[in-house]
Write the structure tokens for this entry.
Amino acid sequence: MLNLGISKSFSKWAVILLMLAAMLSLSTANLVFAEEENPPLQGTITDENGQAIQGVELEVNSFNATEGQWDGIHGTAVTDENGHYSMVMDRSYYNNAIMFTVKGIKVVRYIHYSETSFDFQIPAVLERAEGTITLEDIEAPAPGVTVQVISRLKTSKYITLASGITDENGHYSIPYIATEYGQFTTFNANLPEGGNLTDGKTTVPVATSGAFYGYVYTDSNDTLFGAVVELGGKQFVTNASGGFAFFPPLTDDHIKVSAYGYLPFEGTIGSVPMKIVLPVSSYPTVEAIPEREPDANGWYNHDVLVEFKAEDADDSQPLVVDPHKLVQTEGANQIISGTATDSTGLTGYGEVSISLDKTSPTTVAALTPVTPDGGSGWYKQSVGIQLTASDGLSGVASTEYSMDDGSTWLPYAGTLSLDTEGTHHMKYRSTDTADNVESVKSISIPIDRTAPVIQIISPQETDYNVASDIKVRYTLTDHLSGVDLSRTSAKLDGQAVKYGDATPLYTMTLGQHTLTVTSSDGAGNVSSAAVTFRTYTNLTTLEALVTRFTNNGWITAKTAKSLQKQLEKGDLGAFIHEVEKSRNGKGVTKEAVQYLLRDAHSILDSLILLVNQYTQDQSIKRASVAKDLLRELNKGELKDFARTVDKQSDKHITAHAAKSLLVGLEHLLKKGNGNE
């Protein structure tokens, strides 16, 4: 081991010197911190809505738990218009509390000495201390008692957070903001610990309440309940123990005590508890008498006069009795009272309860649906009717309704349902318990659930030749809301047509057609009707069209004569040839050419279709016969076609097919006009 030759004594002093140097260095560091690192305490105070609160005075204090006292204020500040504050505080104390008052409530919060910011927003919902304080023995509410919510820091040290005063019913309700230190409610903070309301104690010793109090007795030494004690313009009605109490300030020392059936007492207040004795006395007896019995069920339904009659068995002198009172104000159980005073000044009281209801009930009718679901105020479905009656006084006794203009009235027992169609006129009214009858009200409910009836007169469901015209005609019937012509329409093959207009059938295609008529009634019920008919052509129809087109100026007389002659021969080939030759407007207009060729080809096409059908099903047995028939049809030689069919019947054409072809041919060759 290396021996440096340093004595133990020297080593000891070296260690001490090193420790002193370290402490000096630490002290210097703390001093630098105190001088250079003491930022202000800053923050913002806002209300429950986040709005800045200006002018709040804040202070930081510290509590010495050992000595049970505050060490002093270490910093103060006041919030600006933005609710902001900045405070320089002494940070050498550890147990700091920041305190300020907002809206009359003390706020106390613990804050660490190193904190540099503190914000506070008033809670949206405050804590609340509530309760009722009564007087012991007197068993009466204790008004005017100061109640405080405190935060106790030590047994004998506390901060008052908020305070209030009990109302006339001894009730208190005090909002406060809780602290971290805990809090409880006390009354009259200068009272001993027994005043702590958190123990469930809700009474104040009457002897320590500061009240003037006493008891009222009868001359037989019984406590007197219900005696009226008057002092300084205030009244107190004695409780079951005959007790009474008045709280400061007392503006008068003259006390009066009265009770029905006892002589009154007047005097000057004495020491507490004051004992007052009321001797039994004979007061005038007063009776309040209405002029008549109630009109119905204990209620009057018009003004009533109340008379007061009085007598006094102990006094023969005339009594001073209150005059009659006319009750005009409506209300239930109104106490109408009167007095009678004898010669000694004793006053007796009498009263009667009057219930007066002069107002009739009100009934409201509500319909379901609320508004008509149809047009023009009509309903298209069943309607529910609910009658709701109200009466602010005696109450509704009954509601009734009539569906026959008041001849018969039925009791209303619940929602009514109207199902039948028509306009229903309902009257209704209600009667209250006082027998006031409401003026009759009425309501009309029109119901129409049936759409108009449509009957198409023309066209009929039949076949029409194209040489004729049809007129659209129909009838509309609706016995309730009526036909709405603005919503009535007719369409022929989807195209709008007007009632009564004539439509030339040659302008329509050959075959099936449909007329549809749609109509609505005033309520909005919609119905439709349709008829289907067919148009056809034959030689007779062609003859009629030639005549019609000639009259229209579409065919010259010369050309018409030639065309008619070819039709009479049944030579459709020549007819078609001459019409086509006139296609350029020589003797026949383009419109006439279009319709004549269409009908001529339709006649031939129908026979060709029939021949092909019978050929396929072997009703025409020989192909050569079918070929001859088709050749004759393609040439338009109808007479030759008819001869061939007749000749081959029962040979190469079955009798059934031949008959069908000839019948078809006879139909096409039929002479004359009219529908087939």
